[in-house]
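Design job #97: recover the sequence.
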């Protein structure tokens, strides 16, 4: 099986009827980028920047961040480089920070909310990335944005970082802007935010957690955490359709993007791009290569009508039987 998959490395990633499907990788460090390049992935779809500081004794300053991100960008040699600003809090605990003890960390100070209350760290990251964008294409996305007011704040911060760089006679480049859609509020508020954005990426790990009100860190409640459920499917469909109405591409960076059982369904829903763990790239590529877009559209149509988990499972199962 591994040998058969290895043969796919140099194949172009297109569906059976020729639709190109970019498969990017979720990465946390340089070794992950080495792996994605070795497997001929299309680029980085999610750099989890907080992972770079999980074990750090102190927080990196702007210069250190600039060097680290520039290294990644140069390593990618022109392939897309999608960076998520630090998603600190809840399941992502950074040792160098004294995070407050909260009764419900997943509902507390995390993602963009943490950045909002600790703007200096956020600003140093924005400045570093604006400078890196001078050397190649950077896509920047923000975690846990629920509403347009949070996006307004981010855009104001970005603009003042640009002004500061200008004052200091440091160059900066254009950056494509996106949000990680990972709460039902973000999905249902998308129309207010899309005019300000260049892309969106659906974070199904948190989107599932917040849709089902089920803690992703608690294995004992996995029954309440199905990988795919009718409400999650409807939210995904809503995000894709809304973004497409604004002519924006939609990526997915949650675990669902790396689940080969969901590949045809996601293509049928209109997903433009997948971002997954590098180790799963070839499995998903195998699925893309055998998918026919018309059949995928029918699977999506049928799946959207399912009302129960077992119906939904059965609905995507025939796709898998061809190669399993
Ligand atoms: C997600 O929530 O789906 C996601 C990609 O981000 P993380 O798993 O890092 O929270
Ligand atoms: Mg998330």
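Job complete. Output follows.
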């Amino acid at each position: 099986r591994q040998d058969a998959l290895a043969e796919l490395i140099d194949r172009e990633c297109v569906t059976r009827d020729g639709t190109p499907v970019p498969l990017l990788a979720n990465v946390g460090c340089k070794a992950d980028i080495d792996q994605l390049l070795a497997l001929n992935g299309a680029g980085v779809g999610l750099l989890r920047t907080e992972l770079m500081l999980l074990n750090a004794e102190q927080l990196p300053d702007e210069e250190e961040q600039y060097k680290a991100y520039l290294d990644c960008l140069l390593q990618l040699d022109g392939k897309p480089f999608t960076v998520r600003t630090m998603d600190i809090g809840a399941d992502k605990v950074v040792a160098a920070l004294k995070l407050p003890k909260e009764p419900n960390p997943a509902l507390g100070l995390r993602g963009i909310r943490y950045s909002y209350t600790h703007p200096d760290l956020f600003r140093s990251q924005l400045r570093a990335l604006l400078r890196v964008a001078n050397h190649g294409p950077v896509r920047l996305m923000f975690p846990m944005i629920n509403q347009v007011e949070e996006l307004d704040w981010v855009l104001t911060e970005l603009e003042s970082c640009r002004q500061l760089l200008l004052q200091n006679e440091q160059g900066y480049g254009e950056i494509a802007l996106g949000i990680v859609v990972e709460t039902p509020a973000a999905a249902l508020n998308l129309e207010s935010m899309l005019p300000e954005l260049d892309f969106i990426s659906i974070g199904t790990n948190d989107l599932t957690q917040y849709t089902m009100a089920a803690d992703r860190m608690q294995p004992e409640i996995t029954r309440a955490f199905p990988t795919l459920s009718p409400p999650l499917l409807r939210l995904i469909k809503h995000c894709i359709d809304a973004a497409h109405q604004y002519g924006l591409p939609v990526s997915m960076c949650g675990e669902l993007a790396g689940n080969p059982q969901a590949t045809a369904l996601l293509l049928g829903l209109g997903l433009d791009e997948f971002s997954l763990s590098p180790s799963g790239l070839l499995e998903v590529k195998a699925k893309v290569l055998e998918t026919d877009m018309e059949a995928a559209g029918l699977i999506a149509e049928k799946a959207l009508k399912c009302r129960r988990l077992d119906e939904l499972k059965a609905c995507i199962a025939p796709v898998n039987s061809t190669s399993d």
